[in-house]
Amino acid sequence: MSSAKLRKFVDGRMGLLDRISEECRGCGNIVWFHAASYGEFEEARPVVERLRKADPDVRILVTFFSPTGYEAFRTYPAADWVFYLPLDTRRNARRFMEAVRPSKLVISISDFWFNFIYEAFRKNVDVYVISAFFPERSFYFKWYGFPYRRMFRKCFRHIFVKDNRTLELLRAEGIDSVSRVGDPRMDRVIEIASEEWHDAIVEEWCRGSKVFVGGSILPGEDEELIAALANSHPGDKFLIVPHEVDNRSVQHLRSLLEVPSSLYSECGGTPVRTNVLIVDTVGILSRLYRYGWGAYIGSGFTKYSPHSVIEPAVYGMPVVFGPIYDHNTHCGALIAEGGGFSVSGVTDFLAWYDGMKSDESRLASASRASLEYCMSARGAAEEILREIFPHSTFQ
Predict the structure, then answer these.
(1) C-alpha–C-alpha distance, residues 23 and 12, integer Å
(2) What is the pLDDT confidence band of residue 262, given thresholds at 50, 70 and 90?
(3) Among 117, 20, 13, 108, which residue's Cα sits nearest to residue 59?
(4) What are φ and ψ of residue 214, in 5° steps?
C-alpha cells in the first residue's frame, strides 16, 4: 500500500465508529454489504442495485477495507451509507453491530474478518458470501485453514460460488449451504454494453473502423507486449488504457513506442492524427471496449491474474491475456469456449494478433464465442437475491 493510500486508510478510520453510531443508530431494515476494494464491490454492485430498485424501503450500508474502494464509491447513490470497515477487534465489532443492527450481511468474494463475522452470527444476522472462488491450493483448504472452514460451516447462511470446482471443494469439507450461480458482475457488464454511449474523441479517431484495445496495461510485460505490437504494425490503430494514469507511468509507456502517440487528455477539440491513442483518464474503460475488434487485458503476468476479461468479451471480441490466470474463472472458461487466448510473451502475442487479424472466419468465430459466453451467464444477481430474500420478487 502506497504512503498516500496508507494515510487515507488511517485517517478514514479516525472517529469512524462514532460517525457510524451517529448516522445508523435507531435505523431499521439495514442490509450490510462488505467488499475489500473496488473490484470486489463491482461484483456485488448488480445485487445492490437490483435490491435498491426492488425494495426502495431497504436501508443499504456498504463498507470497504481499502481506500481504493471507499474513494471510488463514497458517494454511491444506491447506498444509504458508505464507510470504511473498522479494524477487526472484538470491541469494534460489538460497537458496530450495536449501532447498525443489520438484518443481513453480504460479503463479496472474500475478505473474512473473524470478529465481525462471529459477532454477526451471535446477533443472529444472516451472513452470505457471493462470487466466492477458492482455488484448490488456497490456504483455506490447508491444515492451517481450519479456522476458516469452521467459520464457513458455522456462520454462513449460504455461499454463492462462481465455479463447479469451488462448489466441490466446499462440499468435500462438509459445507452444504453452497450453490453455483456464476458471477453477478456479468449482469453489470451486459447492462453497460447495452447502454447508449459515445466518445467524440475516440469516434473521430476511429473514423468508423474497429481498433485493437489494450486495457488495464501494467508496467513490465504488459507495456512491452502492447508497445511491440504497435511498433511492428505502424499502420494499425491501437487504443491503449494504462492501469495507472499518472504522468510518470504514461510517459514511460510512450517511451517504449517507436510510433507517434497521442494522449486522450490533450485531444479535446483537436483531431487525433496518430495511430496510437493513450487514454490517460479513468472510469471509461469498460465502455471504450465497444470500439474494439479485439482486446489485450493486462495483469496476466502477475500473481493477481488478468483484470476483467468479460468487459471486452461482452462486446463480442476475442480477448487475449498473459499466462497467469488461475484466479480468474472467466479466463479459463473463455479459452474453453474459443473466445479467450493466453500468450506467454511478445513472439506468441504477435503471432496471435497476425493470425487473428488475417483470418476473418477465425475472428468471427472467436467473437461469437465471447459474446455467447457472456450472454449465457447472465441472471446471477437475480438468483442471489431470490435466495437471500425468498419472499420478494426480483425482476
Answers:
(1) 16
(2) very high
(3) 20
(4) -110, 110
Going by DSSP bridges, is the β-strand pair 261-263/156-161 parallel, antiparallel, or unpaired? unpaired
Q: Taking the model in full, what pTM does it have?
A: 0.84
Closest CA to 293 of 205, 203, 190, 209: 209
C-alpha cell belonging to residue 335: 479459452
pLDDT digits (tens, 9 = 90+) for 330-380: 999 999 999 999 999 999 999 999 999 999 999 999 999 999 999 999 999
Enter the C-alpha cell of residue 264: 486522450
Q: Is 228 left (phi over 0), alpha (psi -120 to 50) or beta?
A: alpha
How many angstroms separate the CA atoms of 177 and 367, rounded? 37
Q: Are 96 and 20 in contact (CB under 8 A)?
A: yes
- Determine the pLDDT at residue 2: 65
Cα 136 from Cα 161, distance rounded (Å) = 14
CA distances (Å), 151 to each of 129, 135, 136, 183, 287, in order? 12, 18, 18, 23, 39
Q: What is the DSSP letter of 44?
A: H
Length of the chain: 395
**Cβ atoms of 61 and 103 closer than 8 Å:** no
Cβ–Cβ under 8 Å, residues 305 and 311: no
If phi > 0 it is left, if psi is from -120 to 50 it is alpha, else beta; for residue 270 that is beta
